[in-house]
Specification:
mainly beta, Porin, eight-stranded antiparallel beta barrel, 1 helix, 12 strands, elongated
Length: 209
Amino acid sequence: MIRKIYRLLFLLFVVAGSLRMSAQNASSDVALWIVDSELSQSSIVDDGDTIEFDFDESVGYGISFNHFWTNAFSTEVALQKYGAELSIGSDIGPTFTVGELDVTSFTAMAQWHFNRDGRFSPYTGGGAAHISGEFESDAGLGEPMESIDLESELTWTAAVGANVNLTDRIALVGEMKYIPWDVNEEDGAPEDAIEADPVTFSAGVRFRF
């Protein structure tokens, strides 16, 4: 899987290089983002009882760099950081918060843009993602929180978004991005993983140069 992703990235930048000579209206931009997220609710059955894991997401931030090789094709690298409180409950007992999850994702994507010269310009993209995290476990009873490193994963990502061009140099942008990810302690057993699969909803400002 990892080897296939590296091959995909290599092919992506080879194609981008071959398109560079034919670029029209090529440019670059840097964007600053406010990032909200939605993580999957999951459950396991233990001795006949259903245990549910749920996340209460908090707003984070991000930054990205995008370069246009042609008027419709670009490549982007982006960093996002966001978090959530993890709660555990069961069908026979109360729900309680057990700690805080901090997520960091780095993505490299190819993007295809439509109506780039217009006021409203949608786009879609796909590529590779590296996602990792840290879990601050609440020990309770006034004890300090314990920090647990989570297993990082190299996986894929897909996104859709749209730019609203205010001027030739500044645009507002909204984007939805998906990254498959199972939350697990570093070197933890696969059966202990919690499905998270974050979907992020981001709004930002692009600065072209």
